[in-house]
Structure formats: C-alpha cells, structure tokens
Write a structure and sequence with these properties.
By secondary structure, the chain is mainly alpha-helical. 54% of the residues lie in helices and 3% in strands. It has a two-stranded antiparallel ribbon.
C-alpha cells in the first residue's frame, strides 16, 4: 500500500488499494497466487521482490516442511521434526540454489533482469512504445519451482519477456514438476519404502502422460470459433503462442493443473478446451 514512497520504484507505481493489497497478501501467503492485478502495471520492483517473491519462497517451503513432517510420521518416527529448521532447509538448500540456476539460465535466454525502469522504444511507424521490464528472471524462477504461478507480467508465461523462446518454455515447464516429483522419492527415502514411492510415482506419471496426451490430441481439432470462415482451422491455434507450437499450451495446462502451479503459457479461456 505504501510502495509509492519506497525505493526500487523507477516507474513511479502508486500504492495498491487496501482491498487489493489484502487480497494479494492473503493469496501469496497461502500459495494460492490469485492475481487481481497486472504485475507490470501495479507493482514496484521492491514489492515484487520483498512481498511477492519472498512469499513465493516461504509458502512453498512451508509445503515442503509439512510433507516432510508427514513422511516422518508415516515412517513411525517418535518426533516429526522442527518446523522452522525444515523451513530453513527447504528454502536455503532446495529453493534458493535451484532458483538461482534457473534464473541464470533464463537470463541467458533473454529474460530481463534489471532495476532500470521501463524502456521507451520508437517503432518503424513513428509511434512511441513503453516496454515494461524489471527483475523478471528471478521472479519467474521461483514462480515455477515453488509451484506458485504468480507471474511478473499479467499474461504470465505467455508474455514474450517472461518466456522468450522454445528452450525457456521447456525449462519453465520442467521446473513446475521438478520438486513435486522429487517429493515422492523423498517420501520413499524417509519411510524406507522405496517400492511404495515407485508405485505412487508410476501412478502419477501415467495420469500425467495420459492427460497430456488427451489434451494435446483434442487440441488438434478445428477451432469452432472459425467454423464459418474460409480459413484453415486445424489444429486449434486460438490463444496459443505460436513461438512454442500448438502442443505447448495443452502440455503446460496439464502440468500446471497437476501440480497446482497456476501459471500459463496460453490463454486457457480461449484456447484450451
């Protein structure tokens, strides 16, 4: 609410209204990541880094700490552990190193990572265009790895500066599933029932592959919105980023839903049926 008077605000963003600020804080504290705002229009860099990104770390680490305690209980251990120690371990030993590596890779792939204000560009037609930017790579990395989903930009990972090329799309999609998959094997190690973990992992994998295949197959059907037009309508390209291909949208939709991530690389209300 007071970001307008704080540093790291080169574009002069004003404070959020009380109801929007409360909604945002409650959303990211609980790892819900519901966004009733467009990040590049509403939030300063300080808010993105200290409010949004910090909560994306600790809310994800809280989930890891909780499932670790559950695994210890299922293993029959007399104590389920210290929550704060597990929270610190999940943050410092898992989320921070992985986020640093992913953010570094995304920077090399063209995602902005700067504290400078919006760039002003002059188009070939002579128009002036303001291009929002900021510490995007850092926010995107924990957005994906922490199964958060709250994007730096309003369009999330369908925005060209939040997901630049096909390789960044692959890395961000893989990051969604990385820690949830690893959690299953952690369960097997803590309980000393690795075969049980393998069965759980296999069931999850079969469901993921089946749903991804079904979603990709159904998106090969024509776009009904264009049925009466004399144009080629198959596969369904409406609302999808053609930089990544038609199959990238359905695959991402299944990945983000299966992990409760919430991020998107296509407009689900227009393209994913």
């Amino acid at each position: 609410m007071v970001q307008g008077g704080l540093p790291l605000n080169p574009d002069g963003k004003t404070g959020l209204s009380p109801d929007l600020a409360f909604n945002t804080a409650a959303s990211f504290t609980s790892n819900t990541n519901l966004q009733h705002y467009s990040g590049e229009q509403s939030l300063s860099y300080l808010t993105q880094l200290t409010a949004i990104m910090w909560l994306q770390f600790v809310s994800a680490a809280t989930g890891i700490a909780a499932v670790t305690a559950l695994c210890r209980a299922l293993a029959g251990e007399p104590k389920v552990g210290n929550f704060y120690r597990d929270l610190a371990r999940a943050t410092a030993l898992i989320l921070l190193p992985l986020s640093f590596l992913l953010a570094l890779a995304l920077v090399f792939l063209g995602l902005p990572m700067t504290f400078q204000g919006a760039a002003v560009a002059h188009t070939l037609e002579g128009a002036v265009q303001t291009i929002a930017r900021g510490p995007v790579a850092a926010v995107v990395a924990i957005k994906q790895l922490g199964t958060n989903g709250g994007g730096f930009f309003g369009p999330n990972s369908s925005h060209p500066l939040e997901n630049t090329v096909f390789v960044s799309n692959v890395l961000e999609n893989m990051a969604i599933r990385l820690i949830p998959m690893a959690t299953v094997w952690m369960f097997g190690r803590i309980t000393k029932h690795r075969r049980h973990a393998a069965v759980v992992f296999a069931v999850m994998l079969v469901m993921l592959v089946a749903l991804a295949g079904l979603a990709t197959f159904t998106e090969q059907a024509p776009t009904r919105a264009l049925d009466n037009l004399p144009v080629a309508t198959a596969p369904n390209r409406e609302g999808k980023e053609l930089r990544f291909g038609e199959a990238a949208g359905p695959l991402w939709a299944v990945s983000t839903t299966a992990t409760s991530n919430g991020s998107v690389n296509a407009m689900h209300d227009r393209s994913i049926r």
